[in-house]
Write a structure and sequence with these properties.
- 2 copies of one chain form a homodimer.
- In chain A, strand 2, helix 2 and strand 3 (70-74) form a beta-alpha-beta unit.
- Chain A is α/β, with parallel strands linked by helices.
- The termini of chain A are far apart.
- Chain A contains 11 helices and 24 strands.
- Chains A and B meet through helix 1, helix 7, strand 20, strand 21 and helix 9 of A and helix 1, helix 7, strand 20, strand 21 and helix 9 of B.
Chain lengths: 449, 449
């Protein structure tokens, strides 16, 4: 029987867990097991359908494994015998482990809509050949309907519309697209950018039926309206892929994620760890269960899991949740809590907002107006979240905000933040919007009201 | 006699000091005195000569003063009577103050080179009409020689070369351009980009004479070589503009900067403050005097000075020094200490380095290879500095590093950093180079060697 010190089951976060383990324990033999031949960059999947032009341009190179001394077995794990510490593989022999890591990710949720099983109705599976087929259909399509106006839905819409001669429609059940992710004013801006790109958006609407013969032909909305569709994309979210763990009698938690502690150890078995979309998460802010699924969170958890396999090194302080997206060339993103989420949790907050061109002078080429919103606890001034929209630098500005959150900086700390600036790269030092948003929050914080 | 609660003398940081004061003390009357009619964005000055096309496109709008209720007096302060708390103006009546802020900036250093007084030899003065004239000469020039390969020199070179038919040469006395600012490997990359753009660089060379009749015609180097020049730009640095303060018997410190405490108060007079290039600075890292002159530091100091005028609010924890530049479309920058500076101070450090495309996949449009170097104290793992080069997001990545420095994060903290990522905006979460550079530093830090 083949033996390894560490066996990792899964994709993206599995690679990072393996690299982290090898860094901390270079003498251990690490094997990664996954059924996919070629693994895709998950956040890049929507861009297959427009900007990058195909799944072959969105691949995570296996060289990363090789250069880190991690053996790859392309096979499906069908069961785990925890007593014997053995994994049964579909095509290969059994595999004995000392430590096991679940990095099995998530699977798309298939909504319970009549007709959802018809041809050309596609959930977003992270599989190379499958997405190649979806791309072929998207390229032939005249009418694409996307069910769900969250991130995946909106990114698919913005990419699919780049194919010539296609009409793209998004159907969102909430009053705004991206409502779970962003505050109203940013959702509003994002929808305008999407509409400017020619995408039709239905809100406060549900798809109640998907119709056609074998192939989808139209979708029917709760309002009674019918929309032509030769392709339907299901973008309504994902659920932890935890079946194998459950079958091995490993305890599951919130939303059926594999239940882990702060060291990324399962609650059930001290030799079994989990990381990424397949496991439970807690909020950095209040410790409550979090449904966030982000590749950046998954890899951060993977670094912790890999380091802790043989000796505790790191602990997980919980999900801050930092993300960005691009809609019709404008970037949007949030780090930490939105105002909506904070208020829903009964938190008292103070908001500071500022705008500035992301160059100085604003007449530099490719200058884009940046908008930043920061939120602080009313009683202690500690930053709870920030949102930004703007140009290419928006992604890293959210990371500035994330750094401030992770060290619990106050509005006063951020007023004194020593940013670097450059005419072509950032806002001016007078107008730098992260600092100016904090300045605007300081006085309401220290006031007597 | 005209009276004001607060009189501010100066330019860029004066505006920020005024805004900060008005925010904290909305009932106080604030007057800004400066002799310049139109004030320029200082960091944008090199870009007048290429990208933005003229000083009229690089102006700080006076509307900022108006909208913040700050009165502007365009006049020159000729003396300060500290006992009577009166400023004598050149053209207007006297001005009485309760609190006074020096934000008088810096003046270019004129090197002691024979011929430096000739026509068409230009120090970089921050004056509108003067720079308009320099631009006219630059546009007519066939051969431009820039003395000094620091930031200003290199940025001028990269912009001047964008004018058709001109030959641009930089003369640097050190073994590398930008040597004070960056470590060797980044200097080397920067010089290559400059050379690719057609700029000729002389290193380990000094200009010993500037020759010509009235107009400059050539410069002679210490090696004996002579270079044709119809325009010479002097980019060898600036010195605090502290003459007026000195004449008012206010104590000066390092490099003749106005000596201030952590509250930005002068040592001499509790009602007189100073901020920006005109005052002394201390390093965040060891409290030693710092010669750094950056608009971002000046505005941070101005926010502190303005807030502290009537009651202590903030204190200055010292200069981190964060900057970025662009050379031939590649961005370079440093936050905190360079390896060279740390070692010169006898610090024992551990370095971590990582590279990755600034998009994921790397095949996204406009993807640029990012390079990040982080430096940590060997004994405590606390971050001391970071350098980056790459594309448009480099400026904000340096601000991520600055946030990490300001809260004294360790390499272990940064390993766990929850960055947000997006295919078009950032590196992949597996490869995010700030985190990966920290990962590489962690083991040498915790090792026994």
């Amino acid at each position: 029987m083949k033996k390894a010190d560490v066996v990792i089951l899964g994709g993206l976060s599995g690679i990072t867990a393996g690299i982290s383990c090898q860094r901390h324990y270079p003498d251990k033999k690490v094997v990664l097991v996954r059924k996919e031949g070629t693994i895709l960059i998950p956040c890049g999947i929507p861009y297959i359908f427009g900007t990058v032009g195909g799944p072959e341009n969105n691949v995570i190179p296996d060289g990363l494994l090789e250069s880190n001394g991690i053996e790859l077995i392309k096979d499906e794990a069908v069961s785990v015998d925890r007593e014997k510490k053995i994994i049964n593989l579909k095509n290969h022999e059994q595999l004995q482990y000392d430590k096991l890591v679940f990095a099995t990710g998530s699977l798309p949720i298939i909504p319970d809509i009549p007709g959802v099983e018809k041809e050309n109705v596609f959930p977003v599976r992270k599989e190379f050949d499958y997405l190649r087929d979806v791309l072929d259909k998207v390229r032939e399509a005249k009418n694409i309907v996307i069910i769900g106006g969250g991130f995946i839905g909106v990114e698919f819409a913005d990419e699919c519309r780049k194919n010539p001669g296609v009409k793209v429609t998004v159907v969102e059940m909430q009053e705004y697209c991206l409502k779970i992710a962003m505050d109203d004013e940013f959702c509003d801006d994002a929808e305008k950018k999407l509409a400017e790109a020619g995408v039709k958006i239905y809100k406060n609407e549900q798809v109640i039926a998907i119709r056609g013969n074998d192939n989808v032909e139209e979708v029917e909305l709760s309002s009674g309206e019918k929309i032509k569709a030769d392709v339907v994309i299901l973008g309504i979210g994902s659920a932890p892929n935890s079946t194998l763990a459950e079958e091995a009698r490993i305890e599951l938690g919130y939303r059926n994620g594999i239940k882990v502690d702060r060291f990324m150890r399962t609650f059930t078995d001290k030799d079994i760890f989990a990381c990424g979309d397949c496991c439970t998460k807690e909020s950095f802010f209040d410790g409550k269960p979090s449904a966030v699924m982000l590749a950046s969170v998954a890899t951060a958890e993977a670094r912790i899991a890999g380091a802790n396999l043989f000796s505790p090194v790191h602990h997980n302080s919980g999900v801050i949740s930092v993300f960005a997206t691009i809609i019709n060339d404008r970037a949007f993103g949030v780090a930490g809590l939105t105002e909506r989420a904070a208020k829903a949790n009964g938190m008292q907050v103070v908001i500071g907002e500022a705008s500035a061109p992301d160059t100085h002078p604003g007449g530099m080429p490719n200058s884009t107006m940046l908008k930043v919103k920061l939120m602080f606890g009313k009683n202690n001034g500690i930053i709870l979240g920030g949102a930004a929209s703007g140009g290419k630098s928006t992604g890293e500005m959210l990371n500035v905000i994330s750094a401030c959150i992770s060290h619990r900086m106050t509005a006063n700390d951020i007023v004194l933040f020593q940013m670097g600036t450059h005419p072509a790269l950032t806002s001016s030092p007078i107008a730098y919007p992260i600092v100016n948003a904090a300045c605007k929050a300081v006085l309401p914080l220290s006031g007597s009201d």
